[in-house]
Model the fold of this input.
Amino acid sequence: MRLSEINPQNLQDEDIQTIVYSDISDNGKATKYGLVFGNSMLIKERVTTAWEAYRNGRIQKVILTGGTAGVSNQEHDLLPEAIKMKNLAIEMSILEQDILIEDTSSNSFENVEHAFALIPEKINSIALISSEFHLKRCLAIIQKKYSTLDVILIHSRDGFSDSDNWFLSDGSWNSGRSLATYEANLLIRYAKEGKIADLDIAFDKKRVYK
Done:
């Protein structure tokens, strides 16, 4: 079933699990550029994941994204997410010459658009680095605009919104459950609106999802 065919009403936990967390495995490949998606509340986790990929030779250049107008910037901090990430990345020993900065975007679509404008060469692949709950959307955005690109998904775990623990929390704001539920509904909506690739979701055929 395609994302756009799913009825978002009364999604159950196993529906959310399948919509958000299926088919986002890391294939272990290496590439030159790693695009790190901004989130004011998950900067340390995502930069740490980028550093590990950089240290292990999976990426050579790190593109850090995010401005000040993102929904996660609840403190209304005037320092862009990308700059905060850069400061942390340098502390972690990522060389400054290997860091590209995109500090004006306010959402994932702009993260991609502005980040790709920074890449000075034609590329055949790219690594996307973000939280598990966010990777399906990142993938769908890339596949809509750059359908021939080989995409490598690198998970950043935070301990509360990951595939094996999001359902353990209540629905309060910014809990794992709220993030995963929000993401499932957003994926369906964006697919129906034609804003992202209409990905195939492999539901259990014994259940009815319409």
Notes: The first strand starts at residue 33 and ends at 36. Helices lie at 13-21, 43-55, 81-91, 108-118, 132-145, 176-192. The radius of gyration is 17 Å.
